[in-house]
Predict the structure.
Amino acid sequence: MTLREKIETFREEMEEYVREYGSPDGLNLRDEKDVKEFVKDKGIDSIRLWFTDLLGFLKSFSITPSELEGAFSHGMGFDGSSILGYKRIQESDMVAIPLAKTAQLIPFKIGGSKTLRMFAAIYTPGGEPYPSDSRHILIKNLKKLSKYNFTHMNIGPEAEYFYFFNKKEAKPLDEAGYFDLNPVDQGDSLREATIFALQSMNVPVEYAHHEVAPSQHEIDLKYKDALTMADNLQTHKWLVKEIAERNGVHATFMPKPLKNENGSGMHIHLSIFQNERNAFFSASDPYNLSPTAKYFLAGILQHSKEICLITNQWYNSYKRLVPGFEAPVYISWAERNRSVLVRVPVYRKGKEVATRIEIRFPDAACNPYLAFSVLLAAGLKGIDSQYSLPNPTSQDLYSMSEVEREKQNIQSLPHDLYAAIKETRNSKLVRETIGEEVMDKLIETKLKEWTRYRLDITPREIEENLTL
């Protein structure tokens, strides 16, 4: 059986399973009563509770249907000392309380079990929200919007990733390029199966296509409020990898797996609303940007260096953030110019609902709850301080000399992980946004990562320097 035939068989089995036990458009369970009735009516065998560690990795444990009532009423206790960024061993007791509105059927059996997924809120044994739970950190920061009479922040991410034959070597499935179609694009069937799975878990998709690099792909999720989108992104990343694994393929969101090819980023389209009114829109401005949008954009630019460790948290992230591979490194903005850090899309210029900024430097290997938190904090700081927005840059920044960029006072993002750590370590804004405990643990963890790579001897070093 070819890979394509294997995937098509998997897709057919998944569709049949979803038709019987779920919905192609996702479940719409409103409360605990709905969840308990669904579990009973559909004979669900296992309930998975999901939460996220410091670096954005999903954590999960299963409970049986008989434990569901107790989970809703008083939560499920677990040892938090082994979760990165959580309590020390002498303070390790944590409580996970499932969130009924996030309940969705996983669109295939796991270990032969029909499985329902819910995100969980993490609490202390005293009944307080755990301040180092990254989902709670985002919720806490989103509450600041009300101070400005804003109701919500919309996020639309473009998460890029690669398919490889296995996890031991970066061997692409295809040599296709941007927007290429069958039969060159061997990942097309995998993408389509993943899109079906996403929508069956109530994660709507807007676009999907092959990206520029060999075996590089992109599935763009339809914009949602920031908290829903962070949950959706976690679901998206898990499904991409899980469906690939079930079909004998490895998927990775590693920012730069292939030398001399484009890396994988996650452009983030962002706008802020007052109910139905887009606070970023102005009909009279040539860029259709309101003063609020300009202050917010200026805040992103002003604080981009110090938040970069959150949005681009890996040593490998900074191998993507180099000139010449469609990755923005220079701190500037424009409309159509794709070499800048922040772009103002003009696909539907003049349309209020479509007015937004596109933040181009993050990658999908971040923790989305923390990334959305620091982007919001940087933008709100721009509003509070009424930062002046510099003139847009129309010139290709990659073709400009360093002297030319200096004349225009165009700075760049940190050039490696250690430089990013230094910027963040001194950032009052990041510390206030994510909290002392998370900040200290993040810096400690990233310094260890930097030391590991700094002490590593690469094959290239041996090849070039062994004769010294």
Remarks:
- The chain has two domains: 31-128, 140-454.
